[in-house]
Amino acid sequence: MDGNGRWAEARGEPRTAGHRAGIEPVRMCIREFARRDVRALTLFAFSSENWRRPESEVATLMALFFDALDREVDELHANGVRLRIIGDRRTLSVRLQQRISEAEARTAPNTGLMLQVAVSYGGHWDILEAARNLARKVASGALRPEEIDAAAFSSELQLGGLPDPDLFIRTGGERRISNFLLWNLAYAELHFTDVLWPDFGIAELEAALADFETRQRRFGMVRAPRAAGGRP
Ligand code: IPE
Ligand code: MG
After folding, report:
1. How far away, in angstroms, is 5 Cα from ligand 2 center?
2. How many other C-beta atoms can be found within 10 angstroms of the C-beta atom of residue 194?
């Protein structure tokens, strides 16, 4: 979700106004993907590197997460959404960590859209954490190094047992992944749009899905496997 700052600056407003305006597209995406029976949606809200922004911008973003958790969890729960926060939550305030745990526990039994929000997340960090967890298991004798295959490795990642994303959407004009789900995006179809995140509406979402429909997914093979290639 990129482009909040530029959206605000173009209006002569502070960058934080862009972050506020970015909330409505988040609500729209959750609603639309849930309605379309998409299995999982992962939103990149705040990266490990975003801590290097001005203190006041970071504080506003953290306050927005806290308030959004407060305000939105009832509705997410009512719509059967299972919410999980992925990222290094030890870097968040204790207050925010508590609010996250409550929201996760409350929505854990839900079987609708699996919604992941990446906060203080980095793809390198995710892979390193998985490696450290596996190393601990090997050191304790619970696991042999030969048993570390792709399935064992990916089960230690933040997305755990979730299927790999089919479609990656980046707004805001940059054509890069910026340390998002590095392992999991191996075969994702990449969709880039110049639209700034606060302007990402249903039409843009439908354009991204239509773009996805045109892709031929072969996963390194000559033909697409029969079970794959459907809607994300
Ligand atoms: C994305 O918008 C939101 C976060 C990273 C939290 P930006 O804040 O990166 O907006 P630009 O890229 O400066 O326009
Ligand atoms: Mg940006």
Report:
1. 7
2. 10
